[in-house]
Automatic annotation (TrEMBL):
The lineage of its organism: Bacteria, Pseudomonadati, Verrucomicrobiota, Opitutia, Opitutales. Residues 5-121 form the Response regulatory domain. The modification 4-aspartylphosphate is found at residue 56. This is Response regulator transcription factor. GO terms for molecular function: DNA binding.
């Protein structure tokens, strides 16, 4: 496995130190730098061009949402995972709208943080299950507040029953491994189903798939 280059961004030095110690135990993860605020994060990202940025939200000078927006605009190949204490609806929406492809809580187990890094490095997204639920609720509220809403275009090719099973687990924030265990199938089979689901829904990642599925009343 190629080494995944990671930039740590958090205004708490002690938390960064603990996270560094945790991640450096994995030989395929390389911590290229640390930053204590969004401005430092942007400077470090420009210099190192990391694969992954673990981004806190509430920081001095430039907050995590604005730093995410700037890094995503300048370095689209750098993928950003928000790692924060907060799961406020608006912060979730703002961070993902700014370009984050993952959203984890600092209370998440270490295995989940490592899994999120590995998945996002492969082009997938990873959203905390509780955060996924809030995100879907946010878009449901937006939809219900619209006086007139155009009916969504139906799928050109319907999802199979197994693809719907995968989609429902995806929408709750489960990883491919967790879906495989829940459905009693191989992880490689889940990946094939996932690819089919994304293609049929006409979306690029898991978060968009969950939102599109909600829009079509598939979940």
């Amino acid at each position: 496995m190629n080494r995944i280059r990671v930039l740590l961004v958090d205004d708490q030095a002690l938390f960064r130190e603990g996270l560094r110690i945790l991640l450096e135990q994995k030989s395929h993860l390389e911590i290229v730098d640390e930053a204590g605020d969004g401005e430092q994060a942007l400077t470090a990202a420009r210099f190192h061009r990391p694969d992954i940025v673990l981004m806190d939200l509430r920081m001095p000078r430039v907050n995590g949402v604005e730093a995410t927006r700037r890094i995503s605009a300048e370095m689209p190949d750098t993928r950003i995972i928000v790692l924060t204490t907060f799961e406020d609806d608006e912060e979730v929406y703002e961070a993902l709208s700014a370009g984050a492809v993952g959203y984890l809580l600092k209370a998440s187990p270490s295995e989940r943080v490592i899994e999120a890094i590995e998945l996002t490095a492969r082009g997938e997204s990873f959203i905390e299950p509780s955060v996924t639920a809030k995100l879907l609720q946010h878009f449901s509220r937006l939809a219900s507040n619209q006086v007139r809403r155009a009916a969504p275009q139906p799928l050109a090719e319907p999802l199979s029953s197994r693809e719907l099973d995968v989609l429902k687990h995806l929408a709750t924030g489960h990883s491919n491994k967790e879906i495989a265990n829940a459905l009693g199938i191989a992880e490689g089979t889940v990946k094939n189903h996932m690819s089919n689901v994304l293609g049929k829904l006409g979306v690029l990642d898991r978060t968009q798939a969950a939102l599109r599925a909600r829009e079509l009343d598939l979940i």
